[in-house]
Amino acid sequence: MRRFCPHRTIRVWLKRDSGQYWPSVYHTMPSSCSCMSFNPETRRLSVGMDTGSICEFILSEDYNKMTPGLTYQAHQGRVAVVLFVLEMEWLLSTGQDRNFTWHCSESGQQLGTYRTAAWVSGLQFDVETRHAFVGDQSGQVTILKLEQDSCSLVTTFKGHTGNVTALCWDPAQRVLFSGSSDHSIIMWDIGGRKGTAIELQGHNDKVQGLCYASHTRQLISCSSDGSIVIWNMDVTRQETPEWLDSDSCQKCEQPFFWNFKQMWDSKKIGLRQHHCRKCGQAVCGKCSSKRSTIPLMGFEFEVRVCDSCHESITDEDRAPTATFHDSKHNIVYMHYEPTTGNLLTSGTDKVVKIWDMTPVVS
């Protein structure tokens, strides 16, 4: 287990025969650390710092020694995300200077840079296509095609109303998951080439981390209020409908409050507009007084539905597709290790917790 601390130290903790974790070795950094990436095959630890530089270390086989490696002057501001790609020998990074950069991890040379529209807070990479997925503070996700010394814009898409706070790429299903400060998760079907986007609504606070267990087809998400949600992605999910526009209720035809002409002609007071989460129709409060969960549409909490849709939803339709767990600390970082079934969370309380997920991710 590796962690970094606000007092500028990187610490390695080893699990002893007793089952307890004890400190092995630590290194004091020249400035505060902001992010890290570890590759177990090469035991290469890449640490991003508030100054904009990235420092690398090689850990010994027994994890009792850290040997300093290259230092990259990657950014002009705080490093937000760092990602080492072994297959390409590339080190990818993003910073608060709104630059996405990639370096050669052998020589330390910068290979290229791309200027983003906003500060990048999420980064994933697909080795097969050399596509970098970049999520930023505007809520947009950008796909870039990387070459050895250049990159090209593939496409951009936006579905969040808040910042993109986490990204997770599944290369087998070719699906990208994005989490946001708007509390939602979106599953983007990149490989299907149909533009399908599935929403998952199961958090009450900012989504802080996403991990995908491909062997069980389960998505693990966490939010800053400490909740951990395990989503069953081995079900046929449905896209949420687009909200329809109308000047009057599409059920009872009562005018909405901005429809002055119909209000005057019918001598009726205008009503507030709502939308049914199942069919997307514009409805008044009286025609959408019911609430229901719609798990296959991603709504694990009760949402507004029109009366006719409420009647059509069966108990089977309401069967949950996610389980909810309380970590009992405000999570800022999460990592899942599929080989051991362990989930690591760290919180604002400066506590690192390791969870055995085998009972729920299996």
TrEMBL record:
SUPFAM superfamilies: FYVE/PHD zinc finger, WD40 repeat-like. One of its GO terms (biological process) is positive regulation of fat cell differentiation. It comes from the Eukaryota. The keyword Magnesium does not apply. Its main location: other. Keywords: Endosome, Metal-binding, Repeat, WD repeat, Zinc, Zinc-finger. WD repeats lie at residues 157-190, 200-234, 324-357. Residues 243-314 form the FYVE-type domain. The keyword Nucleotide-binding does not apply. One of its GO terms (cellular component) is early endosome. GO terms for molecular function: zinc ion binding. It is found in: Early endosome. Coiled coil: none annotated. PANTHER family: LD41958P, WD REPEAT AND FYVE DOMAIN-CONTAINING PROTEIN 2. This is FYVE-type domain-containing protein. It comes from Poecilia mexicana. The lineage of its organism: Eukaryota, Metazoa, Chordata, Craniata, Vertebrata.
